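Below is how a single chain appears once it has passed through the pipeline. First comes the sequence as given, then the structure the pipeline wrote out for it. We keep one example in the README because the format questions we get most often are answered faster by looking than by reading.
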Amino acid sequence: MNITVAGAPLLALLLASIRVVAWLALVPPFSTRGVPAMAKVVIAIGLSFAVTPGLADDPLPTTTPEVILAVVGQAVIGLGMGFVTMLLISAIAAAGTLIDLFGGFALASAWDPLALNMNSVFGRFHQMLAIALLLVSGGHLMVIGGLLSTFDYLPLTGFPDIGHWTDILVTAFSMFFTVAVQIALPMIAVLFIADLALALMTKVAPQLNALTVMFPAKVGLTLMLLGLSFPVLPAAMERVVGLANEAMAAMAGA
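Resulting structure:
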């Protein structure tokens, strides 16, 4: 018994899988070490099945050098779009790190069981909240849909034109910083005013030990006011998902 496989759809599936798996390698929560590498490959192949029927009729590489160039090009596309998406989604975790810095929790670190590294307390907490909001709101489906839509604009052959990616990356960095500061700004402002008040108090009463007074006061104030950042997290997650889709569309030239 002979089994024949159509070469064009199979090649389109493999090239599409390379772009998807490169994207999954960087975008949370798929990028965490809690998701095995084989699971990422299976997810990438499954997602690629959805776009393969529309890609089989497109021009595909026919020679070995063209196939190698296409593989490298798809990996570059996936990594570039994955980096932008990861950067924007990480803005919420960065807001938690800012709260740690101004609240005095930066001295303590927590073990991140997914990334297998050390992370600040509220940075890790906000990261988990961001992933939970991403999954509950269906944002992961939106960013995956944004990635799959790029196959309509970026072909599977050749190397992509990445000359215009510089402006997109600069904009993504600026939006990352802006969103993180906007989320943490109420806490930062309150803690800054508390620092000023405690400094004036130690000036009025020099016999007070500034370190023994300021550190516990800031920790307690941070714990009491932590909830100020929670109401803005759903809107922030919706915003970063929209920005991620817009960035991928711009990188694809849509």
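The chain has a mean pLDDT of 79.

See the next section for the split statistics.
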